[in-house]
Each structure stands twice: as C-alpha cells, then as structure tokens.
Amino acid sequence: MKGAVGFIGVFLSFLSEISGHQLQFPCASDPACHNICKFCEENYGKPSMECLSYIFDDYLHFFNEKMRSLNSTDWCVWDKVSSSYSDFSTHTETISDCLLIPWPNSLVEKLFVNIHSEYFKTCPTEEFSDPPPGIVLALVITPICLIPVMVSLVVIKTKNGDGTS
C-alpha cells in the first residue's frame, strides 16, 4: 500500500506540473481541478472550508438569481427548480471532490438548510397530508358500530348460566 500512496503522490505532482505550477498539497487528479486547487493555495494557503465557502458563494449567488427570476409560487414546482437545484448540488460535490474535502460536509449542509428555509419552507408536503374525508369517516365509524355488537354478544353469552351458547 505504501508504494501505491507514493505513486499517487507522484502522479498528483505530475498533474500539477503539467500546468506549470507545483501545488503544495494534494489535489484531485482531474485536470479541471488544478485551477481550483491553485486558487485555494494562492489565497488560503491550502484547501480549506474558507476557500470552499468562497467558491460556493459565487455559484450560490447564481442559484439565488435563478430562483428569484421565478415567481415564488413556482418555487414549489419541482419541474421548475430541479435543474437549478441539481446543478447547485452537483457543483458543491464537484468542487469538494477537487479539493479532496468530503462531501457532504457541514458547509454544504448549512447551505442547503438555508436554501430550503428561504425557498421551500412554504411548500406543501404530500407525504403528511390528511387522508380523504371518506377514509377518515370509515376509520371512525367502524369501531363505533362494533361496540354495540360486542356488547350484545357479551349479554347473550352471559344469559346462559353455564357460559355455553
């Protein structure tokens, strides 16, 4: 395993050198990640939650603009928001993977909690709605009707002194 770790380190160094800049920390092997890692190194010294937050802020701003371009009633229509929501989710995962920061992480969870509390808090949830009135009536009436039947059976059974029918 030690040889594999050494190989991975050499491979990551090789990828970093391809673009002419040697990174001081591991970065994902995807060449597209190099610029993201380089940005974090130059501005934060290493991949960190602060750098991740800064990168997410730009895309969060873009997501907010897309959501605000919709009517607030459309926020609860999944077909209208799914593309933006999925793109934002994919973006957070991709950037986290580039910086070798686990996903989901506390920052991502906080962002999605904020998004849900801002845009989706008034959306109805079908899972927890009341059943139709006909079903409620049947569920309430059935036990009420069974009570007199059960009482009648007990009275009939107890009229015979020996307890047999």
UniProtKB/TrEMBL annotation:
This is Receptor (G protein-coupled) activity modifying protein 2. It is a single-pass type I membrane protein. It is found in: Cell membrane. PANTHER family: RAMP2 PROTEIN (PTHR14076:SF10), RECEPTOR ACTIVITY MODIFYING PROTEIN RAMP (PTHR14076). The keyword Acetylation does not apply. Keywords: Cell membrane, Disulfide bond, Membrane, Receptor, Signal, Transmembrane, Transmembrane helix, Transport. GO terms for biological process: angiogenesis; calcium ion transport; cellular response to hormone stimulus; G protein-coupled receptor signaling pathway; intracellular protein transport; protein localization to plasma membrane; receptor internalization; regulation of G protein-coupled receptor signaling pathway. GO terms for cellular component: cell surface; plasma membrane; receptor complex. InterPro entries: RAMP (IPR006985), RAMP_sf (IPR038126). The chain crosses the membrane at residues 135-156. Residues 1-20 form the signal peptide. Belongs to the RAMP family. It comes from Xiphophorus maculatus (Southern platyfish). GO terms for molecular function: coreceptor activity.
